[in-house]
Design brief:
It is built from 10 helices and 21 strands. With 393 residues, it is an alpha+beta fold. The strands form 7 sheets. The chain has a 5-stranded mixed sheet with strand order 2-9-6-7-4.
């Protein structure tokens, strides 16, 4: 099968740390000649192809950039560590990213990208920092990866590509179900024009702003904006927060979530992800609100939970939020802004109930697909470990 060896990243390619052309010179950004990648362009959970970027620089800025060819690997090394992408054309990047141009020891760029991705935990350990995690270029060059013969590199890349594609297809199916609900909502309620004051139909409350000295290692979960993503409540990161059971059931008992509450992240908002920051609470009084999250309780006489959740994702509501947001470092909105906002109230509660039944059926199918996705992701991680331990090829 050929010999495997451990090599350093600096031995398998040329490593370049990105740079940012002067923003004070408008000529550097006068045209979209070169893709200028930043960490936000790279997916956190998978190796992705980088064909477009949010930002570009002009040809005039080329002497100030570190330009690399197509099929270079980009790895984030400041902030969120270990996000990985592969360029599809000549590009450049900022200083938070290291680019690797593979040499003749690598026959498959995809293999090298996967080899780096399975070192993500080690990279985070190296970058452990109190404020901003950082891996400098020297540390990055010295990261060890297993290097098999060229034919094995191709096989590993093909196998992991196949497994990765299965995951992406399952994610696409789940996203399509979300689009189906959104589409049905617009069919049912898109022509409703009965606007009313939001506060007349919905009770809402923002979290209290718990002090950092009250954080504990364990106890009652304190919800923050980082816990709400893709319309789900998620835990397991270093950013998770807790407070004592005594504090949760004492001083902050009025901020404990009830089953059926609808939560919306109201601080540090990315407009493109606003719709994904809405979630329904399925547990009773397990979580405590913190500032930056607002919970809603719609009046059940006029609004169903399913209708109101989808309403919060509409452009009608989003535009009101964006027009109301205040702040410099972190844009936010709160109860005082909600008091001035409008809601569209359908005339028929029966129509909303039918929509809720439709949503329940879709959610059941989505749950089954989510379980399948979890299994695929577990298998992918196991497969990757076996590939890079030499147990398959």
């Amino acid at each position: 099968m050929g010999k495997w060896e451990m090599v350093r990243l600096g031995e398998v390619g040329t490593i370049i740390t990105g740079s940012t052309p002067k923003t004070s010179n408008e000529n550097n950004y006068s045209s979209d000649d070169l893709s200028f990648f930043k960490p936000g362009d790279i997916n956190e959970n998978r190796v992705n192809l980088l064909s477009t970027s949010e930002n570009y620089v002009s040809e005039y800025a080329r002497p100030q950039c570190r330009v690399f060819p197509s099929q270079s690997i980009l790895v984030t090394c400041i902030g969120i560590i270990g996000k990985i992408g592969i360029t599809t054309k000549e590009s450049t990047c900022n200083q938070q990213i290291n680019a690797i141009i593979p040499n003749k020891n690598i026959c498959s760029t995809r293999f090298l990208a996967y080899a780096i991705s399975q070192k993500k935990a080690d990279m985070n350990h190296i970058a452990n920092a109190a404020v901003v995690p950082i891996i400098n270029k020297s540390q990055f060059c010295n990261i060890d990866i297993p290097l098999p013969p060229l034919d094995v590199q191709r096989k590993i890349a093909d196998v992991l590509d196949f497994a990765n594609n299965l995951i992406e297809k399952r994610k696409a199916q789940i996203e399509n179900l979300d689009l189906l609900v959104k589409s049905q909502f617009m069919i049912e309620f898109g022509k409703c024009d009965s606007e009313a004051n939001l506060s007349d139909y919905v009770w809402f409350q923002e979290g209290p702003g718990v002090r950092t000295i009250d954080f504990t290692i364990e106890g009652t979960i304190l919800l923050t904006g980082s816990n709400i993503n893709k319309n789900q409540i998620n835990f397991g990161s270093k950013r998770d927060r807790y407070i004592s059971y005594e504090l949760a059931n004492g001083k902050y008992k009025h901020f404990m979530c009830d089953k059926g509450d609808i939560l919306v992240v109201s601080s540090a908002i990315d407009p493109d992800k606003f719709g994904s920051k809405v979630v329904i609470v399925h547990e009773d009084k397990r979580y405590c609100l913190n500032t930056g999250i607002i919970r809603f309780k719609p009046n059940s006489e006029y609004l169903t939970i399913a209708y109101f959740r989808e309403f919060l994702k509409t452009n009608f509501f989003k535009s009101q939020v964006m027009n109301s947001m205040r702040g410099i470092a972190q844009m936010h909105f709160g109860p005082s802004h909600l008091n001035t906002m409008k809601i569209i109230v359908p005339s028929s509660i029966e129509q909303q109930t039918q929509f809720s039944d439709f949503v329940s059926q879709v959610e059941a199918q989505k749950s089954r697909l989510q379980q399948s996705l979890t299994k695929l992701e577990e298998n992918y991680k196991s497969l990757m470990q076996k590939c890079f331990r030499g147990e398959i090829f």
